[in-house]
Design a protein that fits this description.
Layout lengths: L12 E3 L3 E2 L2 E4 L1 H10 L3 E3 L9 E6 L2 E6 L10 E2 L4 E2 L6 E2 L5 E3 L8 E2 L1 E3 L5 E4 L10
């Protein structure tokens, strides 16, 4: 289980990415910025992405979450230690689990793998969603 770094900023960093062979790659230099800020990072929509992806840095790795609220589909945003839906107030923790409704299901989670250069790849096929808390 990931233990997220403290999220100390209300706004996420953003990064434009390109998909390639069903994956998004994030280089080690970009990951260093994420780790330094202790923030969630939103990857903007690029061709082939069905939604922006929120990349969360933890002590033992990264998780990639979809940004579509599981209540009625609004775009969620990283906030202070949480992921927040602006439409009806649902909140999620940094693992994507629901911490306050009306949403009932966790955010979509995408598999993340580490590449040989210290960067990561996000596979654009969602994993089974985790349950809400
Ligand atoms: Fe997110 Fe309703 S769409 S709480």
């Amino acid at each position: 289980m990931l233990t997220p770094l403290a999220i100390g900023c209300a706004t996420a960093r953003t990064l434009r990415v390109q998909t390639r062979s069903g994956r998004v790659s994030v280089g080690s230099d970009q990951l260093a910025l994420l780790a330094a800020g202790g923030q969630a990072l939103t990857l903007l929509v690029g061709e082939g992405l069905v939604e922006p992806i929120i990349l969360v840095s933890g002590y033992d790795g990264y998780i990639a979450l979809g940004s579509t609220c599981t209540h009625l589909g609004c775009r969620v945003r990283p906030g202070r230690g949480a992921i927040i839906c602006p439409c009806h107030g649902s909140t999620y923790n940094l693992q994507g689990a629901v911490t306050r409704g009306p949403a009932q299901r966790a955010l979509t989670r995408y598999p993340v793998s580490i590449d040989s250069h210290g960067g990561i790849s996000v596979v654009l096929s969602p994993e089974a969603a985790e349950g809400s808390e």
